[in-house]
Amino acid sequence: MRLGSLQKKFLILLFGHLSLGLCYTRGQRLAALREMDKEWEKVDEESLRQSIQNLYKNKLIDIKETDGGKVKIVLNKNGEKKALEYQLEKMEIKKPLKWDGKWRMVLFDIPHSKRKIRDALRFHLKRMGFFQYQKSVFVCPYQCADEIDFIIEFYQIRSNVRQLVISEIDNDLHLRKIFKV
């Protein structure tokens, strides 16, 4: 099923509401709320109404009526998964102004029975700017633990993936040229 950009945005905004519970500090919650508020302001009401109907038809949201007669839109499990997919598509590694001199390595050993997940992990790592050091070893010079944890949880491959932060590597000059650090 293909969703329009407004439907994707709506799913992500609903998911954003759930992710507020994952924010550790008040500042993080406020930043997330400000970002969600900015996106809501851009939405046309009629388009939103149609998008909600389509999301309901596609079984990504549930619509419930409360005791007070208000309508409540709830993201269901299918909708959560779809919203996570869109978050995954948008994910990128932020480059700091100054490199801290450490390399981040992601190593994985995913069984052949999960080949599609293994290929998806490689795809995401390359898309985010990692260098493929070996078949199942990727390198990046920037902090990325949160992003990698998100991917690991999404695909449920925690036991198959390791993350390393290293300060020395024998081909440091070659990697510095690749990443221009």
Would you kindly provide a written description of the structure presented here, covering whatever features stand out?
With 181 residues, the protein is α+β, with helices and mostly antiparallel strands. The protein contains 7 helices and 6 strands. It has helices spanning 5-19, 26-41, 45-57, 77-90, 115-127, 145-155, 172-179, and strands at 61-65, 71-75, 103-108, 131-134, 137-140, 161-166. The strands form 2 sheets. The chain has a 4-stranded antiparallel β-sheet with strand order 4-5-3-6, sandwiched between helices. Strands 1-2 form a two-stranded antiparallel ribbon. α1 (5-19) runs antiparallel to α2 and α1 packs across α4 (77-90). The chain is elongated, with a radius of gyration of 20 Å. It starts with a helix and ends with a helix. 15% of the residues are buried.
Alpha carbon gap, first and last residue: 41 Å
Overall geometry comes to elongated
Strand content: 15-25%
Q: Helix coverage percent of residues? A: 40-55%
Task: List the secondary-structure elements in sequence, H or E.
Answer: HHHEEHEHEEHEH
Rounded radius of gyration (Å): 20 Å
* Averaged pLDDT: 84
Q: Give the structural class.
A: alpha+beta
Number of strands: 6
Number of helices: 7
List segments where confidence is low: pLDDT < 50 over at least 5 consecutive residues.
Answer: none
Strand order of the largest sheet: 4-5-3-6
Largest sheet: 4 strands, antiparallel
Oligomer: single chain
